Amino acid sequence: MNIDFSHIADLFGTPTYVYDASEIRKRIRMVCSVFKGHEFSILFALKANSNSALLRLMAEEGVGADVVSSGELVAAKRAGMKPVLWNGNGKTVQDKKFFVKQGFDILSLDSVEELEMWHDSDLVKLLRVNPNIDARTHPHISTGMKHHKFGVAVEEIHKVADKIDGLHVHIGSQITSVEPYRAAYTQLVEEIKKHNFKTLDLGGGWGIDYNGESLDIDQMRSVINTVFSGFSGRLIVELGRFIAGPAGSLLTRVVKVKKGEKTFIVTDAGMNNLIRPALYDAFHRIRVLEPVGPASLCDVVGPLCETGDKLGSNRYLELPAEGSLLLVEDTGAYGFSMASNYNGMPLPAEVMWEDNSPRLIRRRQTIEEMYSNVILD
Ligand SMILES: Cc1ncc(COP(=O)(O)O)c(C=O)c1O
């Protein structure tokens, strides 16, 4: 990507998330290529990023929405995404009223019990199945084993088979081997044949290249073609990270370069903007845009009062000068959407780079906005 980050920083300040529109479009087309020859729908999991300007671009490419809250439903509707699927293990009666009023298309039931809430509805209903398969990813983003809270055991499907239209499975996120998928889908295809279901939601989770390892798309195509060769119904995929992750970078300015036994590059972005390194020990490549010194062993840290407030540890980076720019790469998914106001920090700006120019798609939050719903008296 040939993005003028320096111009963006001058125009909109830092920290700012920057998204490359052409990369998003390219990745959606890659997903399409995996399902060619099948009836399929691509949904974007809004939990990865819910900026409606990005979502609108996805809608233009024919992408629908996987939402888990009323807030995400509003973002998807504003962007014109269709179809909309509602996922979640804790849907409340209030949520239900909101969703029914706004309108949506597909429901994923997380339990047999949940069906009671929906007996009078003619929506497409899927039952989330927990296949008890290890996705071989970080434990916090693994979801398909029987001790996880999601879905029901395969043995329970028969209890509601005559009241549902299909199945749903999502075994985790940032999965880099196709084998857990092959195992899960092989189980489900048996159930589908048994009950003559017409729809199967394959979940998301395709792993991206944060640090040299990613899901092999050609292998995934081969798994889909092999496992579903005899299935003529609709396949749904609900991807977040794969579509948005590599399209985004967090642009930040160096506040200090602190040299000592260890060198600390202190930036104006911290765990309030990007929590993944602190939360999961996640790795993101860091690019020094204007290096002035030789490569040194550094920690890149934020300005917050937490030792865990880091963007990268033990990196060999060419040293930047105070005031220069750094990029934290592959942060288009689970970056802004997990940002917080911790330490009294307003949320960052978001910018979309399209047709060789930047467009502000979310203003930086002001301090007044951050406290606007606090009641003092
Ligand atoms: C049910 C469900 N579907 C889809 C996703 C999207 O996952 P990913 O961003 O890894 O594609 C998630 C995220 O964990 C999820 O919980």
Key structural traits:
TIM Barrel; nine-stranded mixed β-sheet; 11 helices; 26% strand
Would you mind describing this structure in some detail?
The chain is built from 11 helices and 17 strands. With 377 residues, the chain is of the alpha/beta class. The protein has 2 domains: 5-17 and 246-367, Lyase, Ornithine Decarboxylase, Chain A, domain 1 (Beta Barrel), CATH 2.40.37.10; 21-243, TIM Barrel (Alpha-Beta Barrel). The strands form 2 sheets. Strands 1, 10, 11, 12, 13, 14, 15, 16 and 17 form a 9-stranded mixed sheet that branches. Strands 2-3-4-5-6-7-8-9 form an 8-stranded parallel barrel. Helix 2 (21-35) packs parallel to helix 8 (217-227) and helix 4 (70-79) packs parallel to helix 5. Pyridoxal-5'-phosphate (PLP) is lined by residues 45, 47-48, 66, 87, 143, 170, 173, 203-206, 238-242, 333.
